[in-house]
Amino acid sequence: MLDRMTLGEIPPKPHIAFRDGEGRVRFEHCFTRRGFDTGYTILYHRRPPTAETAVALRSEGGGVDALRPREAPPLPLARRHLLTNDVAPGPDLPRARTPLLFNADTTLSIARPTGNTDDLFTNGDGDELFFIFRGSGTLETPFGPLGFQEGDYVWIPCGAPYRVRFDGADNHLLIIEGRSEIGIPAYYRNDVGQLKLDAPYSHRDFRRPTALPEPDEGPATLIVKRGDALSRVTLSHTPFDAVGWDGTVYPVAFSIHDFQPKAGLVHLPPPVHTTFMGTGFVVCSFVPRLLDFHPEAIPCPYAHSSVHADEVLFYVNGDFTSRRGIGPGSISVHPSGIPHGPHPGAYERSIGAKRTEELAVMLDTFRPLKFTTAARGVEDPNYPTSWAG
User: Fold this and answer.
1) How many helices (H) and strands (E) does the chain have?
2) Which pLDDT tens digit goes with each residue over 357-389?
3) DSSP 115
């Protein structure tokens, strides 16, 4: 996703015998993208990464099976407001994930885990992008541990087994699942793959694993999601036993506070805030920034008919000048087909403003989003009519 890096011990060429000091062969393991057509990473394990001793469908209760989105009955087309602070907490990350919105390209979930689990998790349906609204901890993968804190995006490639260790019990994550890939927009790179000097971030802004996993000899339980079904795989040993790897596919963390915003003479549209991109959707970051500098500029966003996109905003912090009744942890959903814009009075009040302190994550999808039954359970019923008067 980002650039090539090397960690630990690797042989001078891929696909040759690589032995430890006692002559035992290391086991090569390729993580590839789009088959074998684009970026990849090669890991070297102490033991085979395929040592399964049992496989079964995950059928027991406890909330893990809720990862399959359950579509709500048809709803009239309207702007909607979801209160994610009302989403029920769960005992650990797998069981706390609550899908709220989904289509064929992506699923947006909220997770409020209060603890940790020793089970590993792999998403075989696509990449995952966490946004850490509250909490901190460590992502554990075969690539090595990666710390995170509030305001971080954490990107996990499809197929990578992982476990999250939270530091405390008050955690709140926005999870965006890409059914294919999530990555950096190609137009931010030059022809040799570097991030351009006018991109909204640099290679230095992304944090990567800097140490290999601590060896763990014990057995492991791996929950694998594929086709929204969950399987339980029992492994004779944990896959966190790599001695080295190199390539371009590995987890990274990026703080929303390191996103470099742009300002213009007059209001700039949301594409200037694009941070990540997937098939059928984009993820944008709205951060504190200077506003438009034309003497008669209206900094508040104008009304917009989204004829080809559903707009989802997750409000993190600050002053949301275009909205009322919105607070940290709110999600607004403004669907294609009807115009959306600032609440009454906000447009006029913004004239002369020099700076905004808002912090938010936006997901724009190019296919209509469906609501889950869980989303209906945390909806603000008064939001659709809040533009009247």
Assistant:
1) 3, 30
2) 999 999 999 999 999 999 999 999 999 888 886
3) S
Task: Give 295's contacts (C-beta < 8 A, 6+ positions apart).
Answer: none
pTM: 0.94
What is residue 383's DSSP assignment? Answer: G
Q: What's the mean pLDDT in 286-291? A: 91
Q: Check: CB of residue 63 under 8 Å from CB of residue 95.
A: yes
Average pLDDT of the residues in 13-26: 95
In the chain, the amino acid numbered 36 is: F
Number of Cβ within a 10 Å radius of residue 286: 23
Give dist(CA 178, CA 154) in Å, integer.
Answer: 13
Half-sphere exposure of 124 (CA within 13 A, CB side): 12
**CATH code for the domain defined by 259-384:** 2.60.120.10
Residue 264: strand, helix, or coil: coil
Cβ–Cβ < 8 Å for 19, 9: no
Domains 52-69+89-239+249-256 and 259-384 belong to one CATH topology? yes
Cα–Cα distances (Å) from 286 to 11, 22, 166, in that order, read 43, 54, 26
> Does residue 43 contact residue 216 with C-beta atoms inside 8 Å?
no
The structural domains of the chain, with segments of one domain joined by +, span 52-69+89-239+249-256, 259-384
Q: Read off the pLDDT of residues 45-91 as tens digits, 9 standing for 90 and up.
A: 999 988 888 777 766 544 455 578 999 999 899 999 999 999 999 99
Contact 226, 22 (CB under 8 A): no
- What is the torsional sign of CA 54, 43, 279, 172? positive
CATH number listed for the domain at residues 52-69+89-239+249-256: 2.60.120.10
